[in-house]
UniProtKB/TrEMBL annotation:
Source taxonomy: Bacteria, Bacillati, Actinomycetota, Actinomycetes, Pseudonocardiales
PROSITE patterns assigned: SIRTUIN (PS50305)
Source superkingdom: Bacteria
Keyword DNA repair in annotation: no
Keyword NAD: yes
List of residues binding Zn(2+): 129, 133, 164, 167
Record key words, sorted: Metal-binding, NAD, Transferase, Zinc
Name of the protein: Deacetylase sirtuin-type domain-containing protein
SUPFAM superfamilies named among the record's database cross-references: DHS-like NAD/FAD-binding domain (SSF52467)
Classification via InterPro entries: DHS-like_NAD/FAD-binding_dom, NAD-dep_sirtuin_deacylases, Sirtuin_cat_small_dom_sf, Ssirtuin_cat_dom
Gene3D superfamilies: SIR2/SIRT2 'Small Domain, TPP-binding domain
Length: 262
């Protein structure tokens, strides 16, 4: 199999991951059954998956009631994930780096060195001022835990709505949802990745479709074009096609990543 041959011959590997990887690992924002289980109050209001909540204006008590359950479920679980753990095994002792649009921290939670994981879209593990009144960001676990502790499952609301430690204004998770996003915490990893990149790198792109192609999919294609001897393996259940100009240097694997890793 070409994937195995390319991997065996690669001295350095860049793993580029989109939402499809975490969905394959069991964190699927489209999972209606899981949504109904975790968010019964929202489900009774006619909502049926987490994708519908992205950007949906909610009253603060309901918003943070939802976020407390959502982030606790997807970001702060302690159990290892078999899909991510297998991916770490695949990387092995090879020189590797990660870039991902996912904000769930699953790479660092499953054996990847955090200093070699760039998350340009942010991380649920931090929060920021919505203004923002400062470039500073803070660990989100304390505010998520407080909101979760006071969350009423019957209404989906919490009484512990957080505020900015600096100005007292509204806060949100430190993720890229608009121009107020503060990316400073993640920029050092981005610089390390740019310094690390070089000719001959094998890029393994996983689960990056067309929802936000400008974050992972298109930059990865440009990267491979610009580096001598670089190769691309695109693992995607629905959108595995690769550009014609990368023929011979790109491999399309139309399959679920869990199956490929197994």
């Amino acid at each position: 199999m070409t994937l195995e041959r390319w991997l065996d011959s690669a001295d350095r590997v860049l793993i580029a991951a989109g939402a499809g990887l975490s969905a394959a690992a069991g964190y699927d924002y489209a999972d209606g059954a899981r949504f109904a289980e975790l968010f019964p109050a929202l489900h009774r209001k006619g909502l049926w998956n987490r994708y519908q909540l992205i950007g949906l204006p909610l009253p603060p008590r309901l918003l943070w009631g939802y976020l407390s359950v959502h982030v606790d479920d997807i970001r702060f679980g302690a159990a290892p994930n078999p899909v991510y753990a297998r991916l770490r095994e695949m990387a092995g002792e090879r020189d590797h780096f990660v870039v991902t649009s996912n904000v769930d921290g699953l790479f660092a939670r499953n054996g990847f060195a955090s200093e070699r994981v760039w998350t340009p879209q942010g991380d649920y593990g931090r929060y920021q001022c919505e203004t923002p009144c400062t470039r500073e960001t803070w660990p989100s676990r304390p505010i998520v835990s407080a909101a979760l502790e006071s969350c009423d499952a019957s209404t989906g609301e919490t009484s512990a709505v957080p505020s900015c430690p600096r100005c007292g204004g509204e806060v949100f998770l430190n993720v890229h949802k608009g121009p107020e996003y503060v990316p400073d915490h993640y920029e050092p990893a981005g610089r390390r990745l740019r310094e690390w990149l070089g000719d001959g790198v094998l890029v393994i792109e996983i689960g990056a479709g067309y929802s936000t192609p400008g974050v992972i999919r298109w930059p990865v294609e440009s990267l491979v074009r610009g580096l001598s001897g670089a190769r691309l393996v695109r693992i995607n259940r629905d959108h595995a096609e690769v550009p014609a100009d990368l023929e011979g240097r790109a491999l399309a694997v139309r399959a679920d990543v869990a199956e490929v890793l197994a």
